[in-house]
Design goal:
Blueprint lengths: L8 H4 L1 H27 L7 H30 L3 H6 L1 H10 L7 H24 L4 H19 L7 H26 L3 H15 L6 H8 L2 H30 L1 H6 L9 H31 L13 H40 L1
Length: 349
Amino acid sequence: MQIYNWQIFAQLGINDTLNNGTRTARSIAESWDNQWLDLLQTNTSNNLYGSLTNLGVFFAVGTLLFFMVQWLKDLIYSEYSRPISAFIWPFVVVLLLSNSGNGSILSNLTLGVRNFINNVNQQVVTTADANQTYQQAVSMSVAEEVAGSLLRPCQSLSGEQQTQCFAKASDQIDDLWQEYRNLYGNKTWIDRLENQVNQIRFGTGIISDTTFNAFLGNTVQTTIKNFFFSLQYAFQNLIEATMLLIAALGPLAVGGSLLPVTGKPIFAWLTGFLSAGIAKISFNIVAVLTATVIVNGPAQDYNANPDLMWFIIFLGILAPLLSLIVAGAGGFAVFNAISNTASLVRDRI
């Protein structure tokens, strides 16, 4: 999901800016992918992950004493059943923390889970956004801001100067309508916005502030929209950074899993990783569904003039909060399920 910098549309040209936005979004996504590979698979003997793996091994050695004390205690009082099942954990820890320099089993599993989450997220977005409803909803707001940035300077003019200013601005905006029709086909909302621009262009006399701002808004509104879109983009990158941070701390969670406690740190670590993935997927689902309400509702009404500010606020603040709440509840359920499954397996071995 890409973010456009509306302030530079007029200076760079509409087509160039749209292409630049796509390239920037793709470049950032590739940069995150490369960062995951660099951390988890490239020269893990000497990089940050290798250092954390060594620290995880240190934790494992340190907690092995506590594990052996509890194991001997269970061996004496538990008729061999619990000690035998518990003795699996040291082998699991050693196996996961074995570092060959090209990544450990843990790092490869972590990268595999991340790729799986990303594939599920992409499938969800592709299925839910088959008609590009999210892109259309964002493009509606972008179109208003582009039109405003080009037509707003004409508001202070009058007579022939204003007419020429409107004509020049409309010629530039026509490129935007064509670009949108190439992307989405002939849509009602594109025709409506084009008609509103033409009404302003060919109107007689000076356009009133009320009529003008009802469609084009003002610079303060543009700044607010930019801010909330930046919040949305920051949240998406925060989720990616959170998943990467949790992945990097995996060796510490594995190393501490020999502690004789009910809730193993590795379960909490896995729960946190999956919770971040749930937050990522949840945000995209909410964003797409909300955009669908707009595109399939007021966007289909030729006479409607929807205020998209609520949609921008929703994406910037409410959708991230909602996705975090869902992720927290889902993570709690996952943790309980993993803990109960581990207890069941332990009791049956």
